[in-house]
Amino acid sequence: MKTRTVLSITLIFAIIFGLNGYIGWHGQVFLSNQLGSWFQPGIYWVVFWIIALSYLLAWAGSKVLPAGVSRVLKIIGSYWLAIMQFGFLLLPLTDLIVGVLHLASVSASTYIPLLGWIDTGIIAIVMILGSYNARSPILRKYEITIPKKAGDWEQLRIAVASDIHLGSIVGNRHLRKLVKRVNQLKPDLILLPGDVIDDDIKPFIRYDMGSTMRELQAPLGIYAVLGNHEYIGGHIPAFVEQMDKIGIRVLMDETVHIQERLYIVGRKDKASERTAEGRKGLTALLEGTDLGQPIIVMDHQPYHLDKAEEAGADVMLSGHTHRGQISPNHLITRRLFELDWGYLRKGNLHAIVSSGFGTWGPPIRIGSRSEIIELIIQFKSNERKEE
């Protein structure tokens, strides 16, 4: 296992340095062509590697670097992650065009600046568009019917926001948009299916994001579950404490019976299966519940929809996938999950996977949008009325 871990880490670093070296070389060719004798290769490569490795530097130096320096490095590094992906997709095509032009005896002094500025323009446009998609949340509405009684309730309005990723990149400014849009819905209930924070709890505390989240309002309460990023950060007790302070209950393999009418089941994230404590199966969590009443399950990663349906769940709310966040990554998430985004009816189960409100890594979205879900549930009994 140790050897496999070392080999995996070695491969990851080889890819990171190899890809960045490939991008950096193209940058050198372009800038030396544009700047001529003004171009200084030594200075260029020092600056380039600081930028290219800034996310890793922020992570590795988080305990020794001043908070402001670490945050700046993480922001720069986050945007660079997007540039790395765009470079990986764009530069091989550029090299192919260069090869064709070279065979056609076109002068390098002609095609290097032309292709360089075209690539720069494409990346700039995509970054601007992606920033807009990430920072301009949309409301996505789903209306479903559950053939069960929920006391005297005929309808329930639920606001759902997954993958907020609060931290150094997604902060109070974006969070205030969430609070405003959710409160405008006047929901009966607010559910947060995991990854409320982005690894580290310290930025959440440092920038007093709890005061902003405290403004969320729902008469039936606000409930959250853990996502994989809460486990990556390793600050789960501190996170739960912060949520308790602002009136948000974190369900960790727990079931809540709301006003004797509706069950909310909150599962630990799948990441907990790698820990000593593990997590309970959904069937075990539903022991003692009245399956004749509506059951809503929050499970951050949208695995095993069939098991949720078999256990008797009516609704399963998930996130995690971000719908790939940056296209064409959605082609990968689509293969990894039965449902990587949107709505799926599976037997009696209504499965909904959100693309998330925040972002991981680059605050960029291409082919996906930052979203808040408005879920309206109608309750209708299967029983026939006597004539």
Report on the architecture of this protein:
This protein is α/β, with parallel strands linked by helices and 387 residues long. The chain has two domains: 2-133, no CATH class; 139-379, 4-Layer Sandwich (Purple Acid Phosphatase, chain A, domain 2). 45% of the residues lie in helices and 17% in strands. The chain has helices at 2-35, 41-52, 54-60, 67-103, 108-135, 172-185, 202-206, 209-213, 228-233, 236-245, 282-285, 305-311, 330-336; strands at residues 138-146, 155-160, 189-193, 222-225, 248-250, 254-258, 262-266, 295-298, 315-318, 342-346, 349-353, 371-379. A six-stranded mixed beta sheet has the order 1-12-2-3-4-5. Strand 10 (342-346) and strand 11 (349-353) form a beta hairpin. Helix 1 crosses helix 5 (108-135) and helix 3 runs antiparallel to helix 4 (67-103). The radius of gyration is 24 Å and the shape is elongated.
Going by CATH, the homologous superfamily of the largest domain would be Metallo-dependent phosphatases
Low-confidence parts lasting 5 or more residues at pLDDT below 50?
Answer: none
In the CATH hierarchy, what is the architecture of the largest domain at level 2?
Answer: 4-Layer Sandwich
In spatial order, strands of the major sheet run 1-12-2-3-4-5
Quaternary structure annotation: single chain
Overall mean pLDDT: 94
Identify the CATH class of the largest domain. Alpha Beta
Give the fraction of residues assigned to helices. Answer: 40-55%
Number of strands: 12
Elements, N to C (H/E): HHHHHEEHEHHEHHEEEHEHEHEEE
Total helical elements: 13
Number of domains: 2
Query: Could you give the distance between the termini?
Result: 68 Å
- Stated plainly, the CATH topology of the largest domain is called Purple Acid Phosphatase, chain A, domain 2
CA-atom Rg in angstroms = 24 Å
Q: Biggest sheet, in brief?
A: 6 strands, mixed
Class by SSE composition: alpha/beta
